[in-house]
Each structure stands twice: as structure tokens, then as C-alpha cells.
Design a protein that fits this description.
14 strands; five-stranded parallel beta sheet; alpha/beta; 2 domains; globular; Rossmann fold; Hypothetical Protein, Haloacid Dehalogenase-like Hydrolase, Chain: A, domain 2; six-stranded mixed beta sheet
Length: 284
């Protein structure tokens, strides 16, 4: 039994755990190791899929010691069992109807599907190339397949990212709201970064899988865990509100900070390390 026993700490990855300052990135990792060694369970809740997370942090499975929430809550992966505990798939047939509407209004928009076999796009345009960057395009080649052929292939789709300027995405979001209301709210839309609007299954979200994660570990370890969570963007908002203790770094969106009970330093200054110290000082 350690001082952090009974605590699950879930952190967003980009904009929360990550830091552009190497020494503060290492500080996060050092504090996480101390947290785990003293009984805590640490993991990520990220919009990334397994392959892209492995590229930006090849050692991520050694940093965490619990199942990781991926694809913004569409998947829950257990690294010990090397299997997915939860999978929420996107209704690609219905979503293609929505994309037809969007492409007609914004033909230059970037569209990227996360599938079992990696990234797929109907059109590999410059907006999408710029968004993915050279590293991801090199490490995870994106397949260019029209939506009908993707549907006909039967390949599983977990999420879709729509990429454009923020003001365009606000228009897309309004169209998405109307489309969703007319289709049993089949999709869950959330902004995950300034130029990205993501769509997943209506029952999927970081918040939903944070609840599932807590339930899973409660049963697995025969104990009642408390869930502490930290994140910076729209897709973290409900998870932070649901958590027994929710936190937001200084760089978080204003409404996310308003939902959080704890505020930390910015991601570049070591937000996760700061959160662990706050937990130790004030909550254990």
C-alpha cells in the first residue's frame, strides 16, 4: 500500500502531458514513475490511435500502468493483455451522407478516417498533408480510398477527423448538429484541436471510457478507485467534470479551466508533474 494506492490518474496526451521543454517532459515522466511506485495507476486518454501514439512516444506502454483510452474514447486498450477491452465503431454508411453535404459546401476540407488498418482519406489534399506533417505521413502512410470503396471493403472505422480553419469548422459543426438531430444523434462531435473536429460513435467519449476504465479496475483489483483526470481541450471537458478530481493546465481552454477543480502550470512547464504534487500535498 502506497500513498497513491486507490487513485487512477488519467491524462490527456497532446497539450497536457507533452511539453516542448525536454527537461519538463522528463519531469513529468519522473513524477509519474514516483506516482506508480507509490501505488497509483497512470494512463492516457488521447485522440491518437495506437500507431500514431507509438510514433510520438515510443515508450508510452512503459509510462502507463493501466488501460489507455484511445481515439477520443472509441477504444480502450489493455497493454498487459495486448487487446482492446472496448471498441465503438463509426457508422460509415450514415457518415458518408454527412460527408457528401460537407464536401459540397467545403470541397477543400481535409477528411481522415482512423481504421483498423491505419489512416484512410477520400482525398489526400494539401490541408490534410499539412495537418499530418511529414513524420506521420512517412511512418503511417495514409491510404487514399473513396468513401464508397471503404464502406464496401468492410474495414472497421473508429473515428473521422475533419480538418480546416477554425471558422470553417464552426460552420461544419452547425451542419453536424442539424444532421445529428435528424439521425438519432448517431455521432459524437468534439473539437480536439484548433483545426480539427472529430466524430466518433454517439456512445464514445473520453468521459464514457474513463467511467468504463474505473469500473474495469474496480472489478479487476477488487477495490474502489478514485478517478483523477487532467486535460486541456473540448474533448476533455466532460471527463474533467466527471472525475472525482478534475484538473486543467494553464494553457487549457477557458471553459475547461472553469470545469476543473484544480489548475496546474502549463503543459510546457510540466502540468502532469505539477498535478501529482498537488494531489500529494492536498488530497492524500
Amino acid at each position: 500500500m502506497g500513498k497513491f494506492t486507490g487513485i487512477i490518474l488519467v491524462s490527456d496526451f497532446d497539450g497536457t502531458f507533452t511539453s516542448h521543454v525536454p527537461e519538463n517532459y522528463r519531469k513529468n515522466i519522473a513524477e509519474i514513475e514516483r506516482f506508480k511506485n507509490d501505488g497509483g495507476i497512470f494512463t492516457f486518454a488521447t485522440g491518437r490511435e495506437y500507431h500514431s501514439l507509438s510514433i510520438v512516444e515510443p515508450d508510452f506502454e512503459n509510462i502507463i500502468n493501466g488501460p489507455v483510452i484511445m481515439a477520443n474514447g472509441a477504444r480502450l486498450y489493455d497493454p498487459d493483455k495486448k487487446e482492446y477491452i472496448v471498441n465503438y465503431t463509426l457508422n460509415a454508411v450514415l457518415f458518408s451522407e454527412f460527408l457528401d453535404i460537407i464536401y459540397e459546401k467545403f470541397p477543400e476540407i481535409g477528411i481522415r478516417f482512423s481504421c483498423e488498418g491505419g489512416f484512410v482519406t477520400p482525398r489526400l489534399n494539401q490541408i490534410l498533408k499539412n495537418d499530418l506533417g511529414d513524420i506521420l505521413l512517412k511512418e503511417i502512410p495514409i491510404r487514399e480510398i473513396n468513401t464508397k470503396d471503404l464502406i464496401d471493403s468492410g474495414e472497421t472505422v473508429y473515428k473521422c477527423v475533419l480538418v480546416h480553419d477554425p471558422e470553417i469548422l464552426e460552420c461544419v459543426r452547425e451542419i453536424a448538429k442539424d444532421f445529428n438531430e435528424n439521425n438519432n444523434n448517431e455521432f459524437f462531435f468534439s473539437k480536439t484541436y484548433a483545426r480539427g473536429l472529430e466524430a466518433i460513435h454517439k456512445n464514445a467519449s473520453k468521459n464514457t471510457l474513463a467511467k468504463r476504465l474505473k469500473e474495469y479496475l474496480n472489478v479487476r483489483d477488487s477495490r474502489e478507485y478514485k478517478l483523477f483526470a487532467i486535460g486541456d481541450y473540448d474533448n476533455d471537458y466532460e471527463m474533467i467534470k466527471f472525475a472525482d478530481l478534475g484538473a486543467a493546465p494553464e494553457n487549457a481552454l477557458d471553459h475547461v479551466k472553469q470545469a476543473a477543480k484544480v489548475h496546474t502550470v502549463s503543459c510546457d512547464d510540466g502540468a502532469v508533474a505539477d498535478f501529482i504534487k498537488i494531489i500529494e500535498r492536498e488530497y492524500v
